[in-house]
Amino acid sequence: VSPTIHRTFVTLILEPLYKIYAACLAEPERDVNKLLRGLGVFLNKSQLRSSAQPLLQAALRQFLASAHGGWVQACVRWIPSPKQAAPAKLARCYTGPVPVGGGERNKAAIKPSRRVRAMMQCQPRGPLMIHAVKQYASSADGQSFLTLGRIYSGTVRPQTRVKILGESYSPHDDEEDVSAATVEAVFIPRGPYRTEVTLAQAGNWVLLQGIDANIAKTATIVGIDDANSKWEDDDEDADDDYGVEDECHIFAPLKFPQAGGESVMKLAIEPLNPA
Predict the structure, then answer these.
(1) Which of 108, 155, 227, 250 has a Cα-to-Cα distance from 263 of 20 to 30 A?
(2) Distance between CA 267 and CA 195 in Å, rounded?
């Protein structure tokens, strides 16, 4: 960083907080009142004449009150909805044929299958398609895990029978990397917490319990009978000409070229009973 250019976080967040701290702890009442009024913080005389800790609490309570919804507002404004982001995500992650862009030439070149159309539109009544990307330990002994995945189409519930397609699965070359499992529970991740739900639909990130034994790193999760079953199409204007055969492909394994293809985290361990 150039010595004449300061980081945005330092300029807009840290420095104002440092000024408020310094003023409330050391400056006289008149200077504190002038500084706080310039920031839109208005304290009464009893608050301004109180000791440092109550004064600082009152000042920060008002100063930060207007920012309590800033993070949520930024997410709503700048992060696209799951349905808006689905076509671009599928183009990057799905190994099957996906139309890119909206031009007539592209539409004529690749017509989406029913499965791809359902994923592009985030259809909750479409075929179940989940991209599992990570495992989180759910027990203290590290023997069981919750699987984190994004639902691209369909709806998942507890006791749903699913097929797990491994990273080497291919509908043409290798159909052996497939296993069956039953989803025991469905959770919505909430930071350090999780909320158990009775169902989760397309567009959600979920934690699935009971399928971790069949997943090494990443996987594609589909309904147990999905390959040969029919489902309702939410697009009433769609015709029956979907182009390519409705084959189930996998989501590509995650790659981290910025890290040189190597692990970015290392864990030091030691035996419980050293020799």
Answers:
(1) 250
(2) 29
Neighbours of 102 (CB within 10 A): 8
Amino acid at 230: K
Which residues lie below 8 Å from residue 100, measured CB to CB, with a gap of 6+?
87, 91, 106
Residue 91: Cβ within 10 Å count: 13
Answer whether 156's CB lies under 8 Å from 208's CB.
Answer: yes
% of the chain residues with pLDDT over 70: 82
Cα 182 to chain centroid distance, Å, stands at 23
b/e per residue 32-44 (b: at least 16 CB within 10 A): bbebbeeeebebe
> Which distant-in-sequence residues (6+ apart) come within 8 Å of 219 by Cβ?
132, 147, 164, 165, 166, 167, 250
155-156 vs 145-153, strand pairing mode? unpaired
- Reading the block at residue 214, the tokens are 């069949």
DSSP character for 248? -
Give the span between the Cα atoms of 215 and 250, in whole angstroms: 14
**Mean of the per-residue pLDDT values of the chain:** 83
- Burial class of residue 19, CB neighbours in 10 A (0-12, 13-18, 19+): middle
